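[09:14] KT: can someone run the structure on this one? pasting the chain below
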Amino acid sequence: MTHHTRHTHHTGQRTARRLTLGLLFAAAVGAGLPAGAQAQASKEVRIGYQKYGTLTLLKGRATLEARLAQKGITVKWTEFPAGPVLLEGLNVGSIDFGTVGEAPPIFAQAAGANLVYVGNEPPSPATEAIVVPKDSAIRSLADLKGKKIALNKGSNVHYLLVKALEKAGIDYHDVQTIFLPPADARASFERGAVDAWVIWDPFLAAAEKQLGARVLADGKGLVANHQFYLAARPYAQANQETLRIVLDEVAKVDDWGRKNPKEVSAILSKQTGLEPAVVELAASRYSYGVKPVSAEVVVEQQKIADVFARLKLIPKTIVVKDAQLPFKL
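[09:31] RB: done, C-alpha cells below
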C-alpha cells in the first residue's frame, strides 16, 4: 500500500494544526493538576520505541534532542521488541512515553497500568498480516482451522487474527495460538514449526523479502491498526509542556516523512540494521499524520477491548476512555 495521499496537507493547514494543538495544550497547562505537579517536571524524557514508525525516524533525525536541549531536557531512547513489553516498561517506570499498536494498551489497562493515550497516527491496515511459507498448502483464511499460528500475545496482530478468523467463520479456539516474540516466531516459521505467522512491519517486510513468505491476508477490510502514543499518567500530569513539544516534533517528522520516502528508508535502514529493500517495502505502507485521540477512535478501541474480554484474553472488561488524558494536547 502506498502512502495515504488523503492525509497530505497544505503547509498552512499543517501550521494551523500544530498551532491549535499547541494553544489547546498551553491553555490546559496546570488545569486539574495536583498542587506542585509542575514543580516535579523531569529534566529527562525516556522514550520507548520499536523497529518501525515515526519515533524511529524522530530518533534518527535528532530534532527532538535539539528542541528540548533549549529547555535543559535530555532524551533517552530505549528499543523494545514489541508493544506489550514497552508498556510494561512504562508501567514500572523505566520509560515515560512510547508508541504501540491497538491491542497493547488494552491488555495493559486491563492489568492495571497507569497510562494515558496522548495521540495516534492514521490507520495503517497493510502494515500487519498473516503470512504462510511460500510453498504452503494454505490458500485461504478458512484453511487456518486447526493450524499452529505464531504471534506476539497482546500485540496489534492479536486483534487481526481474531478478526480474520471471525471473517472465515472459524472459532478463535479452533486454531493453536503459539505466543512468541518476533525473533522467536520467525525462527519457528523458518523451520516449519508453525503453519502461519501474524506479524507487523518491518518484520513482515523482512519475511516477504528474505523468506518469500506469502501474505494470506493483511489488515485491509479487517482492522484499522492505529499506532498510539502513550505516556505514564504521572509523567503526563507533571510534564505537559515537554509532551506538547514531543508531539509537535512527531507532527513535523510525519510531515517530512510523507514527502521524503527515500530519506525515510535511509534513516530506517541505519536505525534498524535492516537491508534497504526490506525497509523500503515497510516504509511504503506507513501512514503519517499524528492527531489527538478522538471520541471515534476511543469507540474503536472499546470494541477491541470488548472482544478481548469476551474471548477471556483479558481478565476483565475495561473502559478505554478512563485512559484518556484529563486535559487537551
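[09:33] KT: thanks! The two ends are 30 Å apart (CA to CA).
[09:34] RB: yep, looked fine to me
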